[in-house]
Design brief:
single chain, alpha/beta, Rossmann fold, 4-stranded parallel beta sheet, globular, binds cobalamin
Length: 150
């Protein structure tokens, strides 16, 4: 019998440079480019996401090397769904930030959960989802179901 019924996977920030390339290739009139334009700033000619801009400029002023990251707040859909499922007696655990928690996710998948739920609330393209799906498939026994939903 599996030790865990469900694993909820939160956010995957993906690789910003891959995202930038995809948007640039889509062309200046594409929705991808329009969204990308509002999601970054250039510092010293280098395009970067907002949180990296904040870290870079603040570190410049303080001389420190702090890094602000969205992962400091646990993925809220992961928290909400895990809490909901546990209250209904379903043994559930959550991974908040895919990139930083792959070892833990592999350990949870080794407990043979019947379902893996992948949250997609934040994504505007497929780039961040496919690595999660590939990882889950690689580390899961064949009978695991996985669901991705907003
Ligand atoms: C809070 C928030 C943030 C916080 C996130 C803090 C954190 N670490 O979790 C901050 C400010 C950091 C943030 C950043 C970003 N955000 Co934001 N954010 C939101 C906001 C306001 C609420 C999302 C939330 O957590 N809701 C609470 C949880 C409990 O609800 P939920 O995620 O919807 O999940 C529920 C359901 O969708 C469902 N569900 C979710 N997943 C699954 C999976 C399965 C299998 C099932 C069955 C159900 C299910 O069940 C959950 C419980 O009801 C939304 C706008 C909105 N009002 O929805 C934008 C929003 C999600 N963000 C958005 C974007 C684009 C981003 C960024 C990518 C922006 C950027 N370019 O950097 C980043 C991503 C970074 C990140 N993920 O942390 C967009 C997404 C656009 C889209 N998908 O079309 C939204 C919709 C805002 C918008 N209108 O543009 N964000």
């Amino acid at each position: 019998m599996p030790e865990l019924d469900c694993v909820v996977v939160g956010y995957n920030e993906g690789d910003f440079q891959d995202y930038r390339l995809m948007c640039e290739r889509s062309g200046p009139t594409s929705p991808e480019w329009q969204i990308y334009r509002k999601e970054h700033l250039e510092i010293d000619g280098r395009p970067m996401p907002w949180m990296d801009v904040l870290s870079t400029l603040r570190n410049r002023a303080t001389g420190r090397s702090d890094r602000y990251h969205v992962g400091e707040v646990f993925n809220l859909a992961g928290l909400y769904l895990t809490n909901f499922l546990r209250r209904h007696g379903i043994r559930t655990d959550a991974v908040s930030l895919f990139g930083a928690e792959q070892e833990r996710l592999a350990r949870l998948l080794a407990e043979r959960p019947a379902v893996v739920a992948i949250t997609t609330t934040f994504y505007v393209n497929i780039l961040s989802v496919t690595p999660i799906v590939d990882f889950v498939r690689r580390h899961s026994p064949p009978r695991t179901s996985w669901w991705a939903a907003r």
